[in-house]
Amino acid sequence: MIHFREDFLGKLKSASRLVFFSGAGISAESGIPTFRGEEGLWKKFKPEELANFNSFIRNPQMVWEWYQYRRKIGKESLPNPGHFAIAEMEKYFSDVTVVTQNVDNLHRRAGSKNIYELHGNIEKNFCIACHSRYDFLDFQESVDVPRCKSCGGLIRPDVVWFGEMLPQDVFSEAESKASKCDICFIVGTSGIVYPAAFIPLTAKQNGAYLVEININPTELSSTADYSLYGRSGEILPLILSAVKSKEY
Ligand code: OAD
């Protein structure tokens, strides 16, 4: 049982607009590997060989297989109590926004409604030539990199690769939400990948109270007003319970 600090409970009481800025750590308890750290994906795979456009052009099959492998893990995974707690916050606050760096779709599957996916969505695809859009189900069983049904172009996952721009409309709307929120929760992210990591900084600059939830301190810890160290799948439901019981 955590006894939350009084200033945090006071902020929860008066808040109406929340932003949850999430990273791979929130899905760790669902069985999806994070990127960094000892068990992280980037320890076993080289990002420059897998997550950039030039590698895809050089070896589309290798990149496609890597994404099919990650999709398989995602498909077999379920949202965890952290995702569900965030979704349920919508009952208690007038504006709850999720800004996620994750491509795994678990926030949506947990029921969150206002989601900004800064790095795309692994369940979506598009043609690199004519930009026709396809979703996961179209190529669920495709071992070989598929070709566009309209123009024959290569199909790639709709995720942001190294060196690519974030979807600008998504990012600017997320920034706008961050600039107007009362509390910004930073959940399960190392906070070192920009421009995504500007989201909590924008919130802070505009007066929001910053709460970090992570198993370890991060680059953003010194900026946070309150750091809660532990698993997000345990801490977020405790925050929800405090909200529900009007403990504050
Ligand atoms: P990282 O792998 O960099 O960081 C995951 C964070 O989650 C770390 O700070 C862990 O301490 C924390 N963590 C792990 N398990 C946790 C748990 N159960 N509860 C709470 N925290 C936990 O992942 P991201 O910060 O999401 O970009 O990485 C950011 C971006 O880097 C990704 O979106 C991806 C990657 O390159 C692209 O692919 C464009």
- C-alpha-based Rg, rounded: 19 Å
Structural domains: how many? 2
The CATH architecture of the largest domain would be 3-Layer(aba) Sandwich
Largest beta-sheet details: 6 strands, parallel
Going by helix content, strand content and strand pairing, the class is alpha/beta
Helix content: 25-40%
CATH class of the largest domain: Alpha Beta
Number of helices: 11
Number of strands: 9
Small ligands present: 2'-O-acetyl adenosine-5-diphosphoribose
Poorly predicted ranges (pLDDT <50, ≥5 residues)?
none
CATH topology of the largest domain: Rossmann fold
Biggest sheet strand line-up: 3-2-1-7-8-9
CATH superfamily of the largest domain: TPP-binding domain
The oligomeric state of the chains shown is single chain
Fraction in beta strands = 15-25%
Shape verdict = elongated
* Separation, N- and C-terminal Cα atoms: 15 Å
Short summary:
The chain has eleven helices and nine strands. It is an alpha/beta fold and 248 residues long. Helix 9 packs parallel to helix 10 (198-205).
Q: Mind explaining what this structure looks like?
A:
The chain has 248 residues and is of the alpha/beta class. Helix content is 37%, strand content 19%. It has helices at 6-14, 25-28, 41-44, 47-50, 53-58, 60-76, 81-88, 106-110, 168-180, 198-205, 232-244; strands spanning 17-22, 95-100, 115-117, 120-127, 133-135, 155-159, 183-187, 209-214, 226-229. The protein has a six-stranded parallel beta sheet with strand order 3-2-1-7-8-9, with helices on both faces. Strands 5-4-6 form a three-stranded antiparallel beta sheet, with helices on one face. Helix 9 runs parallel beside helix 10. The longest helix is centred in the first third of the chain and has 17 residues, at 60-76. The radius of gyration is 19 Å and the shape is elongated. The model has no long low-confidence stretch (mean pLDDT 94). 2'-O-acetyl adenosine-5-diphosphoribose (OAD) is lined by residues 23-25, 28-29, 34-37, 40, 51, 101, 119, 160, 188-190, 193, 213-216, 218, 231-232.
